[in-house]
Amino acid sequence: MFKKILIANRGEIAIRILKACQEMGISTVAVYSDADAYSPHVHLADEAICLGDPSPLESYLNIPKIIDAAIETNAEAIHPGYGFLAENADFAYACREAGIKFIGPEPEVIELMGDKIAAKKKMEKAGVPVIPGYHGERQENDFLVKQGKKIGFPLLVKAAAGGGGKGMRIVHSEEELEEAIEGAKREAKSSFGSDVVFLEKYLDKPRHIEFQILADEHGNTIHLFERECSIQRRHQKIIEETPSPVMTPELRKKMGEAAVKAAKAVGYTNAGTIEFMVDGSLNFYFMEMNTRLQVEHPITEATTGIDIVKWQLRIASGEKLTLKQKDVSQRGHAIECRIYAEDPANGFLPCSGILTKVEPPVGPNIRNDMGIETGMEVTAYYDPLLAKLIVSGENREDAIDKMIWALSNYVVLGITTNISFLKEVLNHEAFRKGEITTHFIDTHFKDLFAAKEIPFEALIALSVYDAMHAKPVRKEITALPTSDPYSPWKRVGKWRIGD
Amino acid sequence: MIEVEFNYEYDGRIYKMKVEKTKDAYLITFDETTYTVNATEIKPGYLKIKLGDKIIKAVISEGNESKFVFLNGNVYNIRRAISKGRKIEKEDEILSPISGKVVKVEVKEGDRVKKGDVIMVIEAMKMEYLIKAPYDGIIKKIYFKKDEQIDMGVKPVEIEKEEGSKK
């Protein structure tokens, strides 16, 4: 096992990995940008190296700086987390050249799976079903528009190197197509450094169901069952659960086998995820492979009892996978909600500011993976994911009730978050019934965004609070021009102290 | 006895509250009804309020311009209303919805734009946001160039509205 590793990430995932290392007795090195100097992941690590300027390209995406930090601290391996450099083959190659173990698959595999076009072709060859679309190399706008018309509408424009909904556009008509292609290319260029896009048929009643893979460097590959990730906004997941309400033992077997076949076809090693689209008739298609740890990995951990991050470390250090497929079983039901700094009522736009109070819910089978604390500033530099809330219960119903309780007791003040919105989704009849597709939020938009009056209890609470904290001051002081123009005492009529 | 009045603003509406503190209770008058409550601040910001047989548990924290009230899993961002009926002209304003970097400016000064035309593309947290013209008009002034940082709520351009244009 490694003696020391560097974690090339920030926020909740850096903390998740740091804690696994601590439990295993591995020394840790954190990296951070100027904007994150006081972040919890920096405190938690044994050593921390400053990368400088907050802009991602100068910090968490800067390969030479991170490699130098690892060399300087004698770290034997680098865990990239998710996002940033996690699926960057150049980074994995740079690690290899520097003699540092990259905790993930080989760079050649990242490169292959990162090129969504090549990945699909490879999967088609291996006998894994794929979605119809244009995955070719020609990228002229005119040509793509022609291909788009052939596939028909609605269709998706996706960044070939993409993931996480970035550089993705859904197009409903011919008129929108060219602008969508341009926008997706631009977003892809700035997020991934490549503006190659592809077009794909948009499925009916689509669900996003993925399979977790673990593969060691000795040829053993297993899957840890599925995750249902259909609840998305802006093509990014916000609620994930396992098992999927639509899954049958037969389908699970078929999809699990396809996932293992897909991973084996590319010589995959370490933890990875095969994403499938499943349509209304339960046909499934390979969508892409995420060659990294997934944001929603905790729900798999909650139902299988397997610590995926620890296995990543063991596999990377050359250990054999001692788990056999037949030994892996699922128990109960787990749900994850992603807590984002964003305003659902305003197109889910990200929010930034100071967190004046943070207090997560605690209780049996409630897990908080967090990158935030009271007093912290949330900047616009990075992804607005603040924390993840994971609960598990004996069955789906039980897990939903627990999640609603936990969200109702989750205090995050100072910045608008999606917590109330998540609660609306979980409370929705269709969600309860398991009738979910990737269009859930658009379909139930009206129910989820119903205008709400402020309850009078909130006004009473605030006025009591303000009355408690309004200190009587002497008249001449209130008369100063610099005093608070909103002071209630300016509007006070007659008052006296005592009776 | 102390008596204070608070004017709160939430979601564009004003709520007038009157609070009287007696020896052992607060009398709160709101919407012509007076409620008698007992309240304790259990720890800073955590209130337990007894109203009849109902218990209100709220968490309150203070931001720069407003206070946040957490109640039953929902958060209400409440401002102190400014007494002079200040009106917020929302309709005609063109403001950046987000803090981020300008990645594309689609217009030049003097350009004529139609309602819905894309004026600027702003990138924040790796997502793109389009700023569109809220009405037909002529671009009078552009305040931001490509690659410049723009803050949320800031006006990116000045558009002179064209006569006869509908909102």
What's the rounded overall pLDDT mean of chain A?
Answer: 92
Largest sheet of chain B: 8 strands, antiparallel, barrel
Number of strands of chain B: 15
Low-confidence stretches of chain B: 84-90
Report the largest inter-chain contact. Answer: A-B, 66 and 65 residues
CATH class of the largest domain in chain B: Alpha Beta
Summarize the amount of helix of chain B as a percent range.
Answer: under 10%
> Helix- and strand-based class of chain A?
alpha+beta
User: Structural class of chain B, please?
Assistant: mainly beta
Could you list some keywords that capture this structure?
heterodimer, A: 499 residues, Rossmann fold, Dna Ligase, domain 1, D-amino Acid Aminotransferase, Chain A, domain 1, eight-stranded antiparallel β-sheet, five-stranded parallel β-sheet, B: 167 residues, Glycoprotein, Type 4 Pilin, 2 domains
Helix-strand layout with pairing:
The complex is a heterodimer of chains A (499) and B (167).
Chain A: E1 4-7, H1 11-24, E2 27-33, H2 40-44, E3 47-52, H3 63-72, E4 77-79, H4 89-97, E5 101-102, H5 107-114, H6 116-125, E6 133-134, H7 141-151, E7 155-163, E8 166-171, H8 174-192, E9 197-201, E10 207-215, E11 221-233, E12 236-242, H9 249-265, E13 270-278, E14 284-290, H10 297-304, H11 308-316, E15 333-340, E16 342-343, E17 349-350, E18 353-354, E19 357-359, E20 366-370, E21 377-378, E22 385-393, H12 396-408, E23 411-413, H13 419-427, H14 429-432, H15 440-443, H16 445-448, H17 456-469, H18 475-478
Parallel strand pairs in A: 1-2, 1-4, 2-3, 4-5
Antiparallel strand pairs in A: 6-9, 7-8, 7-9, 10-11, 10-13, 11-12, 12-15, 13-14, 15-22, 16-17, 18-21, 19-23, 20-22
Chain B: E1 2-10, E2 13-21, E3 26-30, E4 33-43, E5 46-51, E6 54-62, E7 67-71, E8 74-80, E9 100-105, E10 112-113, E11 118-124, E12 127-132, E13 137-142, E14 149-150, E15 157-161
Antiparallel strand pairs in B: 1-2, 1-8, 2-3, 3-4, 4-5, 5-6, 6-7, 7-8, 9-11, 9-14, 10-13, 11-12, 13-15
